[in-house]
Amino acid sequence: MSEQAKILAEMQTIIMNILKNGSVSVEEGTKIDELESLLHQQKCFKEIDHPEYDYQGEEIAGLFSSDHYTEAIDKMYEYEITPEDFFGFIEYHDEDEDFTEMFTDEFIADVTKVYQSKCKS
User: Fold this and answer.
1) Of the residues 20, 26, 49, 76, which has the maximum number of CB atoms within 10 A of its CB?
2) CA–CA separation, 75 vs 17, rounded Å?
């Protein structure tokens, strides 16, 4: 499990606890802030100089959504972003759920297979 995946898992655990209890403690709020700060240090959140996108993960998502599948995987490889981290970024960052229908389980499996193949070559 990558550092980004661990951060997201810990955040999810805290959020589920908050939902269960109906309120957030000071400690939970502080911990979420700390985790978000760590999360924004991960590769998907690395800021880029691009007219449309702020982060590397957004650029990759934009490539996928504009049918530039190979270029998106090439960028993942170039930026050393694994499929697990990219799709975790999307799940966390995609507040408007723009990619929910596009990034199906089958799509994720295909991207993972192609990415792993690229890493082996």
Assistant:
1) 76
2) 36
Q: Retrieve residue 109's tokens.
A: 């499996």
Give domain limits for the chain.
1-41, 43-121
Helix (H, G, I), strand (E, B) or coil at 22: coil
Q: Contact 54/47 with Cβ under 8 angstroms?
A: yes
Q: How far is CA 25 from CA 6, 32, 67, in A?
A: 21, 11, 44
- How confident is the model over 49-99, as pLDDT tens digits? 999 999 999 999 999 999 999 999 999 999 999 999 999 999 887 776 778
The two tokens of residue 98 are: 């723009």
**Amino acid in position 46:** K
On the CB side of 96, how many CA atoms lie within 13 Å of its CA? 1
Helix (H) or strand (E) holding 88: helix 83-93
pLDDT tens-place string over residues 19-40:
999 999 999 999 999 999 999 9
pTM: 0.85
